[in-house]
Amino acid sequence: MEESKGRVCVTGGTGFIGSWIIKNLLQDGYSVNTTVRSNPEQKRDISFLTNLPGASQNLQIFNADLSNPGSFSAAIEGCIGVFHVATPMDFELQEPEEVVTKRTIDGALGILKACLNNSNTVKRVIYTSSSSAVLYHNSSGKDYDSEEVVLNEDFWSDVNYLRASKVDGWSYSVSKTLTEKAVLEFGEQNGLDVVTLVPTFVLGPFICPKLPSSVLASLSLAFGDEGPFGWLLQAPMVHVDDVARAHIFLLEHPNPKGRYNCSSSLVTVETISQVVSSKYPECQLSMIDKLKQIEGTKLQDLSSKKLIDAGFVFEYGLEEMVDGAIRCCKEKGYM
Ligand SMILES: NC(=O)c1ccc[n+]([C@@H]2O[C@H](COP(=O)([O-])OP(=O)(O)OC[C@H]3O[C@@H](n4cnc5c(N)ncnc54)[C@H](OP(=O)(O)O)[C@@H]3O)[C@@H](O)[C@H]2O)c1
User: Fold this and answer.
1) Distance separating alpha carbons of residues 329 and 6, to the nearest angstrom
2) Is the minimum distance from the CB of 102 to ligand 1 under 6 angstroms?
3) For a designed S-S bond to 170, which of 13, 156, 162, 164 qualifies (C-beta 3.0 to 4.6 A apart)?
4) pLDDT tens digits for range 140-150
């Protein structure tokens, strides 16, 4: 058997993106430590991870929770790289924003401290940020107003605007913005190699049992339901496999720096509805009819030029995103 490329840690292995990164890492020949939240009352089924090809030899599962920032140390020990993917997803606002944001930042800094303590092995941390940390700003903001503006890595969401406007997903967006800033600052101040990947709405197939919130949000463009980000009329999207590959690309790149946007398609209600109805004629699409009555949100695209210039190649288009997502929704009984 081929020798391992080294051991890496992925936080949030039970999630949509975390589990797909683990699948790809195992395929690529890495050994993987992943963290999951313990759930003693209902023992959770993580066989979708332990049954992955290569998992029996090369996947180790650890319990850790962002509420206990020190709990990630054991999973990070001996790793050459850490992918910090886990984050609270509280779109229903069950907890106050400040509580969620504090947990997210403290948890991330706890992970970075553990990386610093293991700096003899840990060479780089890749933090999964989000376009939520980029897209939201005061609509009178000068730079964002123009349709032609290219949202590169210089743009950040305005936390004061998010807290005041309470747009859909605002609490999550605040926590993503402040956490990305905190991890980049920690890296600079402590000489730790920290880079961030900034994906837009992630769509595609999924191996986790839960219906991913971004699959729900993205397909809501076609099905006319209000998703976790409200009524979306236009949104930037990217395939889950491109996102997982971009994480690994940043680990393997000789010298990445700072943030990297990761987006491949600007999708409208019309384009996604066309793709769904041509491949799945049995699906009932009501969105186009509703369109005239709804004042929905149109989100801008992010420029992925920096990632592409660094050598990354996107492999998937909208058809594959929709096809993979609908196939998995049907297989798992969500449709
Ligand atoms: N999906 C997208 O469109 C998208 C776009 C841009 C960025 N992102 C980012 O990508 C990452 C993964 O998102 P996802 O879509 O894969 O979401 P997901 O499926 O909901 O996964 C979130 C993961 O975080 C874990 N988690 C939540 N709270 C935690 C806590 N207190 N301590 C430890 N782990 C905790 C969850 O564990 P449980 O299973 O125990 O809940 C789960 O494994 C997030 O950082 C998100 O901000 C996602």
Assistant:
1) 34
2) no
3) 162
4) 544 555 566 78
